[in-house]
Amino acid sequence: SDEKLDLNDSKWEDIHVITGALKMFFRELPEPLFTYNHFNDFVNAIKQEPRQRVHAVKDLIKQLPKPNQDTMQVLFRHLKRVVENGEKNRMTYQSVAIVFGPTLLKPEKETGNIAVHTVYQNQIVELILLELNSVFGR
């Protein structure tokens, strides 16, 4: 919206407010950051042999629209910094993946496999965080 925000306002001091807003932004997108039509491809990529997963996920990310790729790179670099400060914030690769996996990657229509999907969603996000430089370069 066009509302002017004062980020120095004390209501923004609680990190949970900012994190919640970030998650809500991605959850409210008309289509997830990992687009619907690639959901099954990403799930199949994470099911591959460990050495092939990174390459498969990287190739799939390259197939996403450029704005999705750019947003994904910025978001995952930020989330990696969150994990790197895990001693202070108690966030691990796995916990960040659990929080963001279902928000960033979901099927267009939920089926009875919600629990199975959640495992794969988390694994995909965790893999990208762990292999950030291999996936996005540098």
TrEMBL record:
Pfam families, per the entry: RhoGAP (PF00620)
Start and end residues of each Rho-GAP domain: 1-136
PANTHER family: RHO GTPASE-ACTIVATING PROTEIN 12, RHO/RAC/CDC GTPASE-ACTIVATING PROTEIN
Keywords carried by this UniProt record: GTPase activation
Highest taxon of source: Eukaryota
Cellular component, GO, one term: cytoplasm
GO molecular function: GTPase activator activity
Gene3D superfamilies tied to this protein: Rho GTPase activation protein
GO biological process: signal transduction
Designated name of the protein: RHG12 protein
Keyword Cell membrane: no
